[in-house]
Design goal:
The structure holds two protein chains of two kinds.
Chain A (H helix, E strand, L loop, with lengths): L3 E2 L5 H8 L3 E6 L5 E2 L14 E6 L2 E10 L8 E8 L4 E5 L11 E7 L7 E6 L1
Chain B lengths: L3 E8 L10 H16 L8 E6 L9 H5 L6 E4 L6 H14 L5 E8 L8 H4 L7 E2 H9 L4 H16 L3 H15 L13 H6 L2 E4 L1 E2 L9 E9 H5 L6 E9 L17 H12 L8 E3 L5 H11 L7 H6 L16 H5 L5 H12 L13 E7 L4 E8 L4
Parallel strand pairs in B: 2-3, 2-4, 10-11
Antiparallel strand pairs in B: 1-8, 1-9, 4-8, 6-7, 9-12, 11-12
Helix pairs in contact in B: 7-11
The chains are: A mainly beta, B alpha/beta.
Chain lengths: ~120, ~375
């Protein structure tokens, strides 16, 4: 597993993750929900987005498998739609029969070194 | 407004072309385009510049070329939709009298010797920092991953299959076998497509475009003037753009529809024609799924039926809608929006040799940028209004 290190800009995500919570961004002015990589609110124009914990309920939108060149494992990736609305670039874990709308739940893999990694598993 | 035409086409060597910067390649393409039109370089009074990933000629290109007293000089960027946007901007400027001969150029030089094409378009950082780093570690390391997600969504929603995408790869390669400029000219079969390695499943290697170094330029001028120049004029009858502003959130059309639904009808209306009048398509084909989605969104088949349409053989030599007749970006050369535009010019002039389409009266050219986020359309014809 690759080691994830903090970048000083998204540390709050990992603070929540270490407590087992998924945090995404929410507009401080209009309360619209955004993915963690958002830098501003496309709905109202605010640049103040607040890290906000959510339950982690999602449904599967679409999925793919990243194949390694040479050594390495196939990586299962997806777009998932949070109950709050935003789509997340996601890793799937344990989804053997992917279908649109499959209920998923956020979880964290805790490597020995570095920050937790967000995955989505069947709910 | 008076009619406007493309009077010149300049192409450098394309592909694994090393030792020349993107700026130098851009300058070479503009010189060739002017010479092709039968214009002296100092007869150009407009220059529009765009670039890809590997080095960026900007408006300093005018200085590189020694152009003086230009009346139009701008760098443009709408990603893969830029070529269409440049031609439209040049056409409007010429039609309104703002300039009389405008060169539009794209150049890129991402390839380096002994580095894979994939690596040329992927970040080189091995540091997985922050949330973005976590995404990269999960597998989001290139646009391949995002186009694979788009393809899979179309497959799940409409039953589109890998074999149907493969039909696009095969028909596009059939055209490439007849294009001396194409980088990949060996015929392939559907079995070859299915056997090619997964890049990001459901996309095989043969679903993905090339990466190329090189430059392409066109000269846009008034139709009357073009008629007196060296090459048969290629009339610009219509143009459009479409930027849906899709947000990846509940209700997103990602992987299902693109901005072609906006730009196609706009361009056809301006040209005063309907879709049934289109005889030849040059579609931005960064991936096979891009061709499929774009053809659906223009309305050449119903939404969701692009796979069956491609598998019917309509797009290949002898088909009802010859598409990407130079081999596209999949097999020909990857000059972003200049790939479909350059082949359209060659076909409109009747200079495509062995692969010349019998019917070339109305040619549709598309551009696609971002992850299916930006779209442009041109309608070209050997005949003016």
């Amino acid at each position: 597993m690759t080691t994830i290190r903090r970048d000083g800009f998204t540390d709050a995500f990992f603070d929540h993750a270490r407590r087992g919570d998924l945090a995404v961004k929410r507009c401080a002015e209009c309360a619209h929900w955004h993915a963690p990589e958002a830098t501003g609110c496309h709905r109202c124009g605010s640049e103040t987005l607040t890290w906000t914990p959510v339950a982690g309920d999602a449904v599967l939108i679409t999925w793919a498998k990243v194949h390694p060149r040479g050594e390495g494992e196939v990586q299962h990736i997806a777009y998932v739609e949070l109950a709050e609305g935003p789509w997340l670039h996601a890793a799937l874990d344990g989804v053997d029969a992917p279908v649109e709308g499959l209920p998923l739940r956020a979880a964290f893999v805790r490597p020995e070194e570095g920050e937790p990694v967000l995955v989505f598993r069947p709910a | 407004m008076g009619g406007v035409a493309i009077a010149g086409l300049g192409m450098t060597e394309l592909g694994k072309v090393y030792g020349r910067s993107a700026r130098r390649l851009a300058a070479d393409a503009v010189r060739r385009a002017a010479a092709d039109a039968g214009l002296a370089l100092d007869e150009l009074d407009g220059l529009l510049v765009s670039h890809g990933m590997g080095g960026s000629p900007g408006i300093e290109l005018a200085d590189t070329l020694g152009l003086r007293d230009l009346r139009l000089l701008t760098a443009m960027n709408a990603f893969g939709a830029t070529a269409g946007a440049m031609v439209a901007h040049a056409a409007m400027t010429v039609a309104s009298g703002g300039a009389s001969a405008v060169a539009c150029v794209f150049a890129d030089a991402p390839l380096r010797p002994k580095v894979s094409a994939g690596a040329a378009y992927t970040g080189s950082s091995r540091d997985y920092l922050g949330y973005g780093g976590m995404m990269a570690a999960q597998g989001f390391r290139s646009v391949n991953a995002l186009y694979a997600l788009a393809a899979q969504r179309h497959m799940a929603r409409y039953g589109t299959t890998s074999e149907q995408l493969g039909a696009i790869a095969v028909s596009t390669r059939r055209w490439a076998t007849m294009n001396p400029l194409a980088q990949l000219r060996d015929p392939i079969t559907l079995a070859d497509h299915q056997a090619s390695r997964w890049v990001v499943e459901p996309l095989h290697l043969l679903d993905c475009c090339l990466v190329s170094n090189g430059a392409v330029a066109v000269i846009v001028t008034g139709a009357d003037r073009a008629a007196d120049l060296a090459q048969p004029p290629v009339h610009v009858l219509g143009w459009g753009q479409g930027h849906p502003g899709d947000r990846r959130e509940r209700g997103s059309a990602f992987g299902l529809t693109t901005g072609a639904t906006l730009s196609g009808p706009a361009a056809l209306k301006m040209a005063g024609i309907t879709l049934a009048d289109v005889q030849l398509c040059q579609i931005y084909d960064c991936y096979t799924i891009t061709t499929l989605l774009t053809l659906e969104d223009y309305g050449f088949c119903a939404k969701g039926e692009g796979g069956a349409f491609a598998a019917s053989g309509a797009l290949g030599p002898g088909g009802a809608l010859p598409t990407n007749t130079g081999g596209g970006q999949l097999s020909g050369y990857y000059m972003w929006g200049m790939t479909p535009l350059s082949e359209a010019v060659i076909q409109a002039r009747g200079q495509a040799g062995e692969r010349q389409a019998a019917r070339n009266e109305v040619i549709l050219v598309s551009g696609n940028g971002g992850i299916l986020d930006h779209h442009s359309t041109l309608i070209l014809s050997p005949t003016g209004r």
